[in-house]
Each structure stands twice: as C-alpha cells, then as structure tokens.
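User: Predict the structure for this protein chain, please.
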Amino acid sequence: MGAIPVYRWRLAPDGLATYRQLRALGLRPGGQEVAAQIERPRRRRGPLVAYLYRIDRAKPVRPMTPARWAALAKANAARRTCPRCRRDVGYCIPTSHGMCGLCLAAEEQRAA
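Assistant: Here is the predicted structure, written as structure tokens:
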C-alpha cells in the first residue's frame, strides 16, 4: 500500500467522509481501504488523526434483525447483572469495581 494523502482539519475534498459521517448518512465503509486521512494539530501532543473513506464506494448499513436485537439485549442485561448478588441493578456495572454499589458497600463495611 502506498502513502495516502493527508489533509488538514476541515480541508478534505468533497466525496470523502469519516466513519462517523458515513454512519450519519446511513452508510458503512464496506471493506474499502482508507482513501485519505485528516490531521488536526494539537499543542503539546501529536495530531488527532481521522481516516477518510470514499462515499461513492460506501455500502448501506445492514439493518438490525430480530436476532441482533435479542443478542444486544442479552449483552446489555449481562452488563447490568451483578456477578455477586445476581440481580439486575438497572445500570451498567463499572468494570473497575466488578460489582454493584450495594455489594461494594457491603464489601467495604466488612473490610472496615
């Protein structure tokens, strides 16, 4: 793969879009290679980089099927279920704690 063109922030030509811009249009890259990239300079760190894809080669987003909705619901339910007390707590359990707030408070109370 050769070098890809690099554009400054907000100066990319028409016909190219970032992944998020494609998503807003109801499109996806569809396996195409990165066509270019844009760089936004920052003061004390390296530049922010965003990859650009050709809009004319983008494909429509695949629709959500009932099986995909079910899998997504199951995954979100697993994130809300506390591994200690096995209850659905109604919010996503933080991975830093690994348990719900009630179990965490009980754990801290036992340690004190």
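The beta strands are 6-8, 16-17, 27-28, 36-40, 48-54, 59-60.
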